[in-house]
Write a structure and sequence with these properties.
This protein has helices at residues 10-40, 48-72, 125-130, and strands spanning 6-9, 74-77, 91-96, 103-108, 119-121, 138-143, 146-155. The chain has 156 residues and is of the alpha/beta class. Strand 3 (91-96) and strand 4 form a beta hairpin.
């Protein structure tokens, strides 16, 4: 795997495309209208609505450029697809030493990572340690919180 590539699952790609479309088709026109109204109010130096709309528009333009770059260079991978080796798109069930309950994570590219949704980046310590491993493999990984030992219970 090329660590420089922007790996996305097909679901992640669709979500980023939807976000981009929303920013371009909804948020950008809303803020352009808000700016137009604020400019019509006159004195721009002390016009909070103008400054707020202009700042929000700047953030949106930055995010649009970021999403366009991610999607332009994206390598879309299919999740799972019957492979017993952990790769981008795989869902992995792991059991940490000393724990009774297994945890499930999906390995994704950094643009799609969201730990709250149990999507971890292939570049994270745990994600990198899992790549290329198979069910039953015991792994030891150094994380910011210390060394973690776990076993791969399943790969989907």
């Amino acid at each position: 795997m090329d660590s420089k590539a922007n790996y996305l699952t097909s679901v992640g790609e669709a979500e980023l495309r939807a976000e981009l479309r929303h920013l371009i088709e909804v948020r950008r026109p809303e803020l352009a209208q808000k700016l137009k109204v604020a400019v019509a109010q006159g004195d721009l130096k002390e016009n909070a609505d103008y400054h707020d709309a202009k700042e929000q528009l700047g953030f949106i333009e930055g995010r649009v450029r970021q999403l366009e770059a991610i999607l332009r260079d994206a390598v879309v991978v299919e999740a799972g697809a019957g492979n017993d080796e952990v790769r981008v798109g795989s869902t992995v069930v792991i059991l940490e030493d000393g724990e009774n309950e297994a945890e499930e994570y999906q390995i994704v590219g950094s643009a799609e990572a969201n730990p709250r949704q149990r999507k971890i980046s292939l570049e994270s310590p745990i994600g990198a340690a899992l790549l290329g491993k198979n069910q039953g493999k015991k792994i030891k990984v150094q994380t910011p919180d210390g060394i973690i030992r776990f076993k791969i219970v399943a790969v989907r």
